[in-house]
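User: Could you go from structure to sequence for me? I need the amino acid at each position, not a summary. Structure tokens:
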């Protein structure tokens, strides 16, 4: 029975599996989008989301935890300086998986996994457009209601 044994084995030993996911994760950080099989993408999503949630807060403990999976110092810097802050306001779901089709050689199902911060850019643009529309409506209303003040000659003399 397979009780309390989460995760797939991918027909590899433990060391090979860890090395495979380290390489996939480093390529994902480097290129922010990679193409791999569906099963590997689903396994990578778990690891990538954990690493990004650690990268949201920049401290020594989190850097050490992330360095278990990412061996390249430049990629760790990129993760903590660029990728982590982009997801500071997001509570989860840092990666997205698109199913592409079948691989030509062995008909394995292939997916593209990427970071989901492009989606936030789109939602920010939509929110900005909505806010701009509300501001324009408010300005139009205020223009209609505002009437120029009638200034008398005595008030002009006082202001000078």
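Assistant: Here is the amino acid at each position, in order:
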């Amino acid at each position: 029975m397979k009780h309390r044994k989460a995760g797939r084995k991918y027909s590899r030993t433990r060391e090979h599996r860890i090395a495979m996911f380290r390489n996939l994760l480093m390529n994902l950080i480097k290129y922010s989008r990679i193409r791999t099989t569906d099963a590997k993408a689903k396994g990578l999503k778990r690891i990538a989301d954990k690493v990004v949630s650690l990268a949201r807060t920049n401290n020594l403990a989190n850097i050490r935890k992330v360095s278990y999976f990412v061996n390249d110092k430049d990629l760790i810097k990129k993760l903590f300086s660029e990728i982590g802050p982009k997801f500071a306001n997001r509570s989860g779901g840092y990666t997205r998986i698109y199913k592409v089709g079948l691989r030509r050689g062995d008909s394995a199902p292939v997916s593209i996994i990427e970071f989901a911060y492009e989606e936030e850019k789109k939602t920010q643009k939509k929110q900005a457009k909505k806010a701009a529309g509300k501001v324009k409506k408010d300005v139009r209303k205020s223009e209609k209601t505002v009437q120029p003040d009638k200034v008398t000659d005595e008030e002009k003399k006082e202001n000078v």
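One structural detail worth keeping in mind: The beta strands are 33-37, 95-102, 109-115.
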